[in-house]
Structure to design on (310 residues):
DNA sequence: ATAATTCCTATCAATTTAGTAGGAGTTAAA
DNA sequence: TTTAACTCCTACTAAATTGATAGGAATTAT
């Protein structure tokens, strides 16, 4: 499972991608309220996203956060890695956090490893494609579908 | 990441599938030694696998564990669910452990959910296909490849 | 009987998670 | 130039989870 931190981070980023088209900074407390995230907790999360180069911040009155990169350039894989570490389910198939399995006898002929390697490759591919822009597109698509459904019900 | 418990469980099951063709029980201490798993810890793991219907046990002298189902019928997805719970990365896309996201406004139009739903579907598909028999087949395949490689090196 | 095994309950230390608290530093505007 | 509204930063904490260990009861082949 993804941690709450990661989930909050993704929600905050999607919120920023949707609400701040002009690049105007949006305040922590605003995001916290709209996305139901504890304010102080979100504070730390946004700071980390800024330090990772995904967000810009402006201090002082009228300060806040805005996207540093375009919504096409920010993807869920990177956010997950930032907060939860490796996406791989075994250390020995991780890409950016590789570590040998302590108890493993021969990594090269490990059938379990082969399975988890495939899972990792596919998962990373999907999560890399899941940019903020893509998430918004999907959300729009789903809204249309639900609109059609309610229309049909009224008939 | 998968827990150590799950990793140990998979290794123990693969060991049993490979070494106990005749269905003769194999002792905890034997598996523990060969697979580098703390004995007492493995004890609890095997018990849980038995209670889940994957293993048979025989008590007393010459007792031990054997597979209850065929290696084609035991898959990694089920083992992971047994020890680590849901395979899904978000509670709201879990199949056997579904739970609404506390902070979610509208599940039906959530773009994030759509992404993680796809990831879950693909992951479960791969892990369901990863039966003990399949893991052994892959392992054999890898052994052949590494044999060819060493042959070529010698030339 | 006894030796070797599984079965079962309880306990524990370390780590991770999901926050909270308090205040220093910065900036726009009155 | 004061002040209100922000971000930035460090430290702390309670609860849950993980990865075990300890000790002995129950069972079975010899």
């Amino acid at each position: 499972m993804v941690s709450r931190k990661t989930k909050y981070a993704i929600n905050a980023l999607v919120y920023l991608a949707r609400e701040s088209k002009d690049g105007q900074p949006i305040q922590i407390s605003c995001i916290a309220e709209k996305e139901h995230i504890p304010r102080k907790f979100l504070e730390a999360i946004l700071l980390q996203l800024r330090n990772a180069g995904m967000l810009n911040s402006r201090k002082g009155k009228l300060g806040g956060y805005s996207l540093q990169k375009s919504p096409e350039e920010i993807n869920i894989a990177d956010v997950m890695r930032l907060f939860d570490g490796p996406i791989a389910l075994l250390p020995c198939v991780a890409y950016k956090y590789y570590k040998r399995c302590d108890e493993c006898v021969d990594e090269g002929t490990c059938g379990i490893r082969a399975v988890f390697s495939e899972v990792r490759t596919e998962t990373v591919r999907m999560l890399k494609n899941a940019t903020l822009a893509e998430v918004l597109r999907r959300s729009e698509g789903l809204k249309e579908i639900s609109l059609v459904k309610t229309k049909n019900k009224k008939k």
User: Anything to note?
Assistant: The two ends of chain B are 41 Å apart (CA to CA). Residues 4-67 of chain B form a domain with the Arc Repressor Mutant, subunit A fold (CATH 1.10.10.10). The first helix of chain B runs from residue 4 to 19. Residues 27-29, 43-44, 46-47, 57-65 of chain B lie near DNA strand C (CB under 10 Å from a C1').
